[in-house]
């Protein structure tokens, strides 16, 4: 049972990461009107993948200052995960 709960928790994280990647791709494909949230939330800053996906969406929208902050954040989260 405990392992099943852990899988479900990880599944939520994976879905968040994948949704962020889809949103960034929609922005690149000029379909940004289909993206529900364009502003990254606090939860987007807590993992490398989510921060990176948010940065990609920002780049696609031309929000380069925000993208730089998000890329720095993703780099910091990546280093934390490697330790």
What does this protein structure show overall?
The protein has 83 residues and is mainly alpha-helical. It has one domain. The protein has 3 helices and no strands.
In short:
With 83 residues, the chain is mostly helical. The protein contains three helices and no strands. The protein has helices spanning 2-28, 48-60, 64-82.
Describe the secondary structure blueprint for this structure:
Blueprint: H1 2-28, H2 48-60, H3 64-82
Helix pairs in contact: 1-2, 2-3
Structure characteristics:
83 residues, mainly alpha, 0% strand, flat
**Number of separate helices:** 3
Class by alpha and beta content: mainly alpha
- When the domains are counted, the total is 1
Overall body shape = flat
State Rg.
Answer: 14 Å
User: Roughly what is the average pLDDT, rounded to an integer?
Assistant: 89
In whole angstroms, the N-to-C terminal distance is 29 Å
Please trace the helix and strand order, writing H or E for each element: HHH
Total DSSP E strands: 0
Sheet of most strands: none
Helix content: over 70%
Approximate strand percentage: under 5%
Low-confidence stretches: none
